Amino acid sequence: MEVVIVPDAEAGGRLVAEAVVRLLGHRPDALLGVATGSTPLPVYQALAATAAAGGADLSRVRVAQLDEYVGLPAGHPESYRSVLEREVLAPLGLGPEAFLGPDSTAPDVAAACREYERALAAAGGVDLQLLGIGSDGHIGFNEPGSSLASRTRIKTLTERTRGDNARYFGGDPGRVPRHVITQGIGTILEARHVVLLATGPNKADALAAAVEGPLAARCPASALQLHPHATVVADEAAASKLTLAGYYRHVFAGKPDWQHL
C-alpha cells in the first residue's frame, strides 16, 4: 500500500481532495464512495473550497453511500443519508439524483442490500472509495470477524462501536442503533482506488495492524493489503505505531502517486 504521512487532518484532506480533482479531470461523472464521521470532513471541505474557487467541476459527480443505520426513520438527522446530504451533497452543490444508497427503511432489508449491490454494478462501480478506520480496525461497518469476501449486508454493531458512535446520539450508547447495512469487504475491494484516512492517536493501533500486521479477519482493514491500488493517508498521531514510518516518509515523501487516476 501507499502510506503517506501528513502533518495533520487538514493536510490529509487537501491531499485526498487533490486525488478526486485529478480523477474528475478525465472522468467528470466519477462515482465516489463516501464515508461519514469526522475523519473525512476535511476532504469534503477542501473539495467544496476548490469547486468554489473554480478549480473543479463537480456538476456530474455521483456519490455512493458506504453504510447506513437500520431502524432510523427517513430524515432522521443522524441517519447517514441525512449526514451525507449536509456534509457532502449540499456543500458540493449536488442534488439527490447524484446519490446512490441502500434503502434501510425497506420492509425487506436483506433484499434492499442485494438491490444496492445491483445498483452499484449498474452505475459502473466505484471509482474512488474513501474510508475511515475504526479503533478496532473495522472499515464501513465490517466489524472484526467479517468475511473478507463479504457483500453488502446487515450487520450487528459491537458494543465498542456503539460506544464510539454515542457522541452523535447525545453520548448515550443505548440510542445508537444495533443494526446497520454496510458494503461488504468484498464490495469495497471492487472500487478502482481505495483511500483510507486515519487521524488521531486512537487510530494508531488499528492502522498499524491494517498496514503492517497479518491479513486477518480480526482487523478487517487489513484486507486492503489485497487491493492493487490502495492509499493510506495518516496524520502523525495515527502513524505513530507504524514501524516502517521512516520508510514511508522516504518513499512517498508526503505525496502519493496519483498517476494511476
UniProtKB/TrEMBL annotation:
Q: How is its activity regulated?
A: Allosterically activated by N-acetylglucosamine 6-phosphate (GlcNAc6P).
| InterPro entries the record matches | Glc/Gal-6P_isomerase, Glucosamine6P_isomerase, Glucosamine6P_isomerase_CS, NagB/RpiA_transferase-like
Highest taxon listed in the record's lineage: Bacteria
Residues the UniProt record annotates as site (Part of the allosteric site): S146, R153, K155, T156
Q: Which reaction does it catalyse?
A: alpha-D-glucosamine 6-phosphate + H2O = beta-D-fructose 6-phosphate + NH4(+)
Give the SUPFAM superfamilies listed for this entry: NagB/RpiA/CoA transferase-like (SSF100950)
Keyword set, alphabetical order: Allosteric enzyme, Carbohydrate metabolism, Hydrolase
Top enzyme class, one word, equals hydrolase
Say yes or no: keyword Hydrolase present: yes
| Annotated pathway | Amino-sugar metabolism; N-acetylneuraminate degradation; D-fructose 6-phosphate from N-acetylneuraminate: step 5/5
EC numbers, comma separated: 3.5.99.6
Q: Which Gene3D superfamilies match?
A: 3.40.50.1360
- Keyword rRNA processing appears in the UniProt entry: no
Pfam families linked to this entry: Glucosamine_iso
Q: Which GO molecular-function terms appear in the entry? A: glucosamine-6-phosphate deaminase activity
Active site (UniProt): D67, D136, H138, E143
Which HAMAP family does UniProt cross-reference here?
GlcN6P_deamin (MF_01241)
Q: Which family does it belong to?
A: Belongs to the glucosamine/galactosamine-6-phosphate isomerase family. NagB subfamily.
What is this protein's function?
Catalyzes the reversible isomerization-deamination of glucosamine 6-phosphate (GlcN6P) to form fructose 6-phosphate (Fru6P) and ammonium ion.
Protein name in UniProt: Glucosamine-6-phosphate deaminase
Organism in which the protein naturally occurs: Streptomyces chilikensis
Lineage here is: Bacteria, Bacillati, Actinomycetota, Actinomycetes, Kitasatosporales
